[in-house]
TrEMBL record:
Superkingdom of origin: Bacteria
Protein's cellular compartments: Cytoplasm
Family: Belongs to the DtxR/MntR family.
Positions in coiled-coil regions: none
UniProt keyword annotations, A-Z: Activator, Cytoplasm, DNA-binding, Manganese, Repressor, Transcription, Transcription regulation
Organism: Chryseobacterium lathyri
Protein name: Transcriptional regulator MntR
Function: In the presence of manganese, represses expression of mntH and mntS. Up-regulates expression of mntP.
Subunit details: Homodimer.
InterPro entries tied to this protein: DtxR_MntR_Metal-Reg, Fe-transptr_FeoA-like, Fe_dep_repressor, Fe_dep_repressor_sf, FeoA_core_dom, HTH_DTXR, Iron_dep_repressor, WH-like_DNA-bd_sf
Transmembrane feature ranges: none
Amino acid sequence: MRTTLTEENYLKALFHLVDNEGKVTINELSKFLNVKMPSVNNMMKKFADKKWVVYETYKPLVITDNGKREAALVVRKHRLTEMFLVKKMNFGWENVHEIAEQLEHVHSQIFFDKMDEILDHPKFDPHGEPIPDKDGNIIAQDLQKLSACKVGETVIFASVTLSDDGFLSYLNDRKLLLNTRIRVVKIEDFDKSMTIEIGNSKEILSRKATEIILVKK
């Protein structure tokens, strides 16, 4: 039986919220989705019937292997769509999230397989996040927040934890794109804002921005 739009939104929320042990609380899901707790409880009981989660009253939910796969496949459709919009339709990376939110609910597997083929099977989306494969497997990345870097370190901009169009436009204005080499020049004691060097230019980033930017060495 096909998953509904609402089920897919819950699955995607689980994908983003579960901790390293595969656990998440009903309250966390409620806040993330802006849905009342009784509704979340009812949906998680349905998920438990489908063997996607282990549900016990007053305990955190535990996502099952089947649940992880179903959730990853929804995310796969979203991230493939974003990549297609950027690479084949020339959208800016700041303009693709809302469109992908709509197209991710298309159920045709052939549609997304063809999209994957046309893109030559990309491993990452335009925001640097890994695209799950057809079996729901996902590449593990060893990334850290830019805010964790020290003065003098040189790192590569690899991903963002927020694909909000306002934030991505903020990065565009500073010509800060994926795979850019960044050198940390200065960190202010007062507000932890950071001066970085990109090529021959310098930019000042807020603490909030450095918390969202993920880098690799």
